[in-house]
Amino acid sequence: MSPSLATFTPALGPQPANAHFYSAHTTTLHMKEKVFSITGDDFTIKTVDGTEVCKCKGKVISLKDKKKFVGTDGKEIFTLGNKMLSIHKSFHAESPTGHDFEVHGHWKMIGSRSTVTFKNAADGNAVELEILGSWMDRSAEIKWGGRQVAHISRSFFNVREMFGDKQTYFVTVAPNVDLSMIAAICVSLDERENEDK
């Protein structure tokens, strides 16, 4: 059963309004880690009906372990990298157009908690999202002021994935929410989990 998601007006996200990054309807993303990637960290982000939203390209050599997100036109949307000097694993997304955001890791006794901060491109307001989840349950929720922005679930019954250590994510995203940002949040959570193994 799909989670109950809020509808946001104006659009919610750091990137300016773009048909590839925002949908007027609830959207489910399918994020598949590439099976034969050289880096092991490349994702293609598509909707469940096969429409490509963007790609995440891991770099082979990088002191800061950065990952570049590019649109369907091949242009860079933002680069996601580790935030230096953070007590808990955190990430900074730097956009060539200045539409940056950060994913902050926080300590929690059970499960995991993170926050995402950015300036909303639609109205210029500062926004803080909360991510709560348990990777033992293979799920997480993203909320803003109690309203659900997205729900993340992970497929772990695929035999090829179990032996190849590759993951599939299904992310249900509320209408008018930046899909590229939600995809980056998933990558951040995956990076943090892999570091803790």
From TrEMBL:
It holds the Pfam family LOR. SUPFAM superfamilies: Tubby C-terminal domain-like. Belongs to the LOR family. This is Uncharacterized protein. It comes from Oleoguttula mirabilis.
